[in-house]
Amino acid sequence: MARRLIPALGAALLAMPVAATVQTYVESNPGTNQIALGYPVPEPVNSVTPVNGFRAYGSLLARHRDLAASPVIREERIGTTTEGRAIWAYVVGDADTRLADGSGSEGVVLFNGGIHAREWASPEVATAVLEALAAGAEDGGFTEFLVDQVEITIVPVLNVDGFIQTQRTPTQVLRTTFSGDPPSWPRDGRMRRKNMRGVDAELTTESDALLGVDVNRNSNPFWAQSSQSSHQTGSLVHHGSGPGSEPETRAIQAAAELVDANRLRFFVDIHSFSRVFFGVNTGHARRDAITRSLVDAVRAATTGYGYDPTPAGVGIGSLDEYFAYSYQIPAYTLEIEPGGNGAADYGHNGVTHDGFILPESEISRVRQELSDALLLGAYRQSGPPVVLASTLQAGTGDMVYAGDWIPAATSGRSETSTRPDSLPAGEMTLRIVFDRPMRAVDGGSVVQYRGQSIPLLPTVRLVGLDADGQNIEFAVPAGMMRWSAAAESTRYQADTLVVALSAAAGSELSTAAQLDLVVDAQDLSGQRLDANPATVATWSDGAWSGYEDADGRESDQGGASAAFRLVGAGLAEPAPSGGAVSSGGGSGGLGLGALLGLGLFALALRIQRRRRFFSARRSGSRSSRSA
Amino acid sequence: MMSSMQRRLNLAAACVCLAGVMPGAAMAESVSAVRHAALQERPLVREVEASLRAEDWASVYQRIEATGTEIPTNAEQELVAYRLATGLQAAPMAESGRRWLQAVAQWPVVTTEALPDAGHGIQVPAFPATHAARTALRVWQARDDAQRLRDAISTSQWPGALSPNGELLARLGDAEFDALYALWPSKRQMPADWALRWASSRPDAERVERWLWAESQTDTPSAQRRQRGFASLASAGDAAVFDQLAAAVRAHPDWTPLWLAALGELSSLEARRELRWWAGDPQFGLDALQAQARSESGREWIREQIVARGDQAPEQVLRRMLIVLVHAGEEAFLRDWAAQPSSPRPLKTEVLAWLGD
After folding, report:
1. B357 — contact with chain A (CB < 8 Å)?
2. How many domains does chain B have?
3. What is the largest CA-CA distance in chain B?
4. Which H, E and C letters describe A549-591, residue by residue?
5. Range 146-175 of B in CB contact (< 8 A) with A
6. How far does the CA of residue A382 sit from the closest CA of chain B (Å)?
7. pLDDT at position A585, please?
8. What interhelical angle do B296-309 and B331-339 show, nearest 10?
């Protein structure tokens, strides 16, 4: 291995180690200078495929390269370590950078692993994300959507030198005396945290054991501004000689530029341990609120991870701060389990620092759980869901109505539709097409995505005027709706809602002079619809742009969408105002007290009439429509 | 090793760089070390340390009585409890000690240190008396169980409930452990590590089968244990056992990478044959090739495949062969290969990038 005799700046007298002792982790029955964990001490295994253990760096790299044979994964060299090793990133996405319907640009997500050498669970989780994307790139559902509509850059091992150093001596640490540490803290060997600047590979070289730079203290805007980082080269949190002084820091910054930094929307730096997401508030109110709601959805997919945001204006030079402030995006530090009690969480002895040594028996579960959680975050930051098309087909097979929101010439979408003056009586099938898989599918059944609790069906209403100019509103009962099976989906599994309608001859429906379709839905992460498909939602200056609520206002929450007029003249109002469409997504809380039978929509629809002021509100809002 | 000149250079650089820089940070960092050092010098702590060093168990037990089971209110008290709990692991087991350990094992940690990970600080125990007590209880349990097992061997009767964990396993000698095999109740699930030790000591079909069954049922799956088991049993020189293992792996795909990694440690003909059989497998072929590349003969076989059959091999297999050779440091061969006009261009580009060009 290449050894560089780089002068270690700032090897302060205070930091000089004395009387260092090599100690060895053992499972049990400890002798002199042995530390009993109470469980088998994990050592790296030479397995390319994920197993119940921690893979050696060479095996991880071989795995990444094997996966990069996929047409949707490309490997990029983003830097070179102080020991001359390449730092690699993997960009996952289809060939184009446009959304699947061509209307806008894909968002970019960045996941970083292995910044701290001893946190072995981190490269495993980052690799698991890559593995999940590669395995599911053609699953016809959730993962294929991500590959189509997001670009996900993954750096599985940023601190390559340090990681290799910990794997070189996987059971040994140096117990030494740095004046800044409590004497129980093990350093170097398996417990190396920092990079290898100024360090040789020999664990027993006492003079350099404490050196190296903490790459997670090496970034602007808060470089060297906190007592939680140090100028002392021997400190566990030595911040280096300047912001971005370390090749690893520059490499992760380069990873953000690989695709298009302007499209970056989500960053997670994966660490261990303490079972928490640390966040960064920047003082940008909308960004901070989105950062909170996003992490809440992601945390719900985990087993009890907490959230702990840093207040605006302070920091310690970490990567999450860099991305939060530089790009005004949600940026987090994920601390993988166990919690603060370390391996005692699993019933083991709980010796100090054993939280960094996740038992082998836990890693498969952790990989699966956290890759699911992180990909849920990517799904959510792909942008809010939107209704793209709708059709109404008579039982005879005749197409009664067909409407599409198609990409406009320059930007956004415009509606094209063919609609009748009135609806025929009889059985009909209404299909509502979304831009994404709206629900998870398991074995053909629609299920909740891991840890989520979203209403499995949305709220769908038909709202309009009858032949006498009086208001009508029909709430579709849940029993008449279902998500599309694979064969009848439009692009992804469960991207289409299929609604069975039935209208008797002479009913109000068949005589409706104007009828709008109003959908209030949440995607599988709980994010509500972009009410107006005409403006494509995108991330801009710390918040969503073009993401409207039911009243047509810019928002970060969205709302019910009335994107299609099934019957009657003129285009539908994308975001009709008023209480008729502003109820909570999927809640069904419409206050529909009166069920007017009259034989209309028998067994299919509840009918509620609203007669006052409706026409006036509709005509008033039409003038403000934009497409 | 750093040279003495290098150390002097470092020190000189440090003196220049540190002049007048952030004295506050240095002071803040030194506080915890100073506090720890002061605690170690307290008379009570020194007295406990002296008793433990002298193995004066009577004094240790007296101190335990005096300490009681009240939750400590300061770091000194917890440090004393921590040292007592640690020391009890080797002490004669007495009921009063057991009761005390059980009480301490329930204490919340009083003194913690903020471990500066991820920049935000994680609280980890500085004097984890609670964890030391748990460890001591586990050690005592193992000491108890080991004695009961020894008694069981002499009476040829299974001792009933015990905790067959690694702690107990480590306390049993080879002969007494092997004697336990015949006593193990047939309906009782064997821990996988126990089953492996029995199978390794005598790798016959029955013991190997019991280990494989234990692995399929365990709730503590371990890649290292499985790889170690496969390597140990496959190298025993028994062709029937080798075939038994190979068949088991085909029924448990998640074991396959570890089987292949284990075979990479062996030099037998059958191991090489098995690795070559797996080399073209879409799921585990890269594991097989990586295992092969650990030996010179394996690398030679891979090189021959590339030269002789590279143009006919599926692209995935060829690419994987190139990956493992890059990682095995076969730079000269790879550069020659990349220089061949017949080598496919996209792969050449990748290989040269992997080599750092």
Report:
1. no
2. 1
3. 84
4. CCCCCECCCCCCEEEEEEECCCCCCCCCCCHHHCCCCCCCCCC
5. 165-167, 169-171
6. 26
7. 37
8. 0
CB contacts of B320 in chain A (<8 Å) are 66
CB contact set of B234 (below 8 Å; sequence gap of 6+): B241, B242, B245, B262, B263, B266, B268, B271
User: Taking the CB of residue B232, how many other CB atoms lie within 10 A of it?
Assistant: 17
Asked if A13 has any chain B CB less than 8 Å from its own CB, the reply is yes
Burial code (b: 16+ CB inside 10 Å, e: under 16) for A127-136 equals bbbbbbbbeb
- Residue A94, class by beta-carbon neighbours within 10 Å (0-12 exposed, 13-18 middle, 19+ buried)? middle
Mean pLDDT of A1-22: 42
Mean pLDDT of the region A482-492: 92
pLDDT of A430: 97
pLDDT tens track for A335-353: 999 998 889 899 888 788 8
* Number of helices followed by number of strands (H, E) in chain B: 20, 2
Any CB–CB contact under 8 A between A310 and chain B?
Answer: yes
Q: Is B172 inside any structural domain?
A: yes
- Residue A505 contacts B, CB cutoff 8 Å: no
**Residue A160 φ/ψ, nearest 5 degrees:** -60, -45
DSSP annotation string for A74-104: EEEEEEE-TTS-EEEEEEE--S-SB-TTSSS
Strand pairing partners for A279?
Answer: A309, A332
Structural contact between residues A457 and A525, judged by C-beta atoms closer than 8 angstroms: no
Tokens of A482: 């279902």
Query: A546: phi > 0 → left, psi -120 to 50 → alpha, else beta; which?
Result: left
Q: Which domains does chain A carry? A: 16-381 (3.40.630.10), 387-622 (no CATH)
* B259 CB neighbour count, 10 Å cutoff: 29
Query: Which residues does A420 contact at the CB level (< 8 Å), separation at least 6?
Result: A400, A401, A567
In a domain, B292, yes or no: no
What ipTM was estimated for this complex?
0.87
In this structure, is residue B212 part of a structural domain? no
Q: What is the DSSP string of B147-204?
A: HHHHHHHHHT----S---SHHHHTTS-HHHHHHHHTTS-TTSPPPHHHHHHHHHHS--
* pLDDT at B158 exceeding the cut of 70: yes
Give which of A337, A42, A341, A39 is closest to B138, Cα–Cα: A39
pLDDT at B38: 76
Residue type, B283: Q
CA-nearest residue of chain B to A118? B117
Is the model more confident about B72 or about B263?
B263
Tell me the backbone φ, ψ of residue A615, rounded to 5 degrees. Answer: -60, -40
Residue A403 belongs to what H/E stretch?
strand A399-407
For residues A220 and A243, what is the distance between their CA atoms, to the nearest angstrom? 6
Share of chain A above pLDDT 70, in %: 86
B67 occurs within a structural domain: yes
Local confidence band at A508 (pLDDT 50, 70, 90 cut-offs): confident
Domain that holds residue B179: 30-112+124-154+164-183
What is the distance of C-alpha A20 from the center of its chain? Answer: 44
Mean pLDDT of A514-530: 97
Better-predicted residue by pLDDT, A604 or B295: B295
Cβ atoms within 10 Å, residue A126:
28
Q: What is the pTM of this model?
A: 0.88
The CA-based angle B96-B102-B105, given to 5 degrees, is 140
Is residue A536 scored above 60 in pLDDT? Answer: yes
* Residue A75: strand pairing partners: A90
Is the pLDDT at A594 greater than 60, yes or no? no
Q: Transcribe B19-30 into DSSP letters.
A: TTS-HHHHHHHH
